[in-house]
Automatic annotation (TrEMBL):
UniProt gene name: mreD
Entry annotated with the keyword Nucleus: no
Record-linked InterPro entries: Cell_shape_determining_MreD, MreD_proteobac
Ranges in a coiled coil: none
Protein's name according to its UniProt entry: Rod shape-determining protein MreD
Pfam families: MreD
Protein keywords: Cell membrane, Cell shape, Membrane, Transmembrane, Transmembrane helix
Keyword Transmembrane helix in record: yes
Source species, domain of life: Bacteria
Family recorded in the similarity comment: Belongs to the MreD family.
Transmembrane segments annotated in the record for this chain: 56-89, 135-155
NCBIfam families linked: shape_MreD
């Protein structure tokens, strides 16, 4: 394992654990419906900032954790988070060239796709999902993206070129 990948995991794993904790904290019903998709937000950032090496295993592990915690069909969150990572990796070139407000607008359809996959899987498995509980997180995740981006930029270890 190279040094850059190792340093990436040193920040990614604790960030994912924190995101999983934030995803499960009990909130009042209205705030719970507006809860951002913390894990997708963290994985989206890391797919944007890293070269994508080694992101599928942590995204699959986090997705399985979410599936178990929320009692959804196994693999639902795995697929949705993998789509987030893949789409962000494919759009990295545009994201790097864009200012933060445009990056937010570029990421918004990715959060929408994440929620749509979860909504579709709920429908396919005959689980009733409140529409507001599926679509309000898209708005809150999009609004939270610039703040999380700046915070994670400050926490990201600086790598010096050789």
């Amino acid at each position: 394992m190279t040094t850059s990948i190792r340093s990436q995991y040193l920040m990614l794993i604790p960030a994912l654990i924190l995101a999983l904790v934030l995803q499960t904290i009990a909130l009042p019903p209205l705030l719970s419906a507006m809860r951002p998709s913390w894990v997708a937000l963290i994985l989206g950032y890391w797919a944007y900032r890293s070269n994508g090496v080694g992101l599928l295993l942590p995204s699959a592990a986090a997705g399985l954790c979410l599936d178990v915690m929320f009692n959804t069909a196994l693999g639902t969150h795995v697929v949705a988070l993998t789509v987030v990572v893949y789409a962000t990796l494919k759009l990295r070139g545009f994201l790097y060239l864009s200012p933060l407000w445009q990056t937010t607008l570029i990421q918004a359809p990715i959060w929408l796709l994440y929620s749509f996959i979860l909504f579709w899987a709920d429908g396919a498995t005959l689980h009733a999902a409140a529409p507001l509980a599926r679509w309000l997180p898209v708005i809150s995740t999009t609004v939270l993206w610039p703040l999380m981006f700046l915070i994670l930029q400050l926490l990201r270890p600086v790598t010096r070129p050789r």
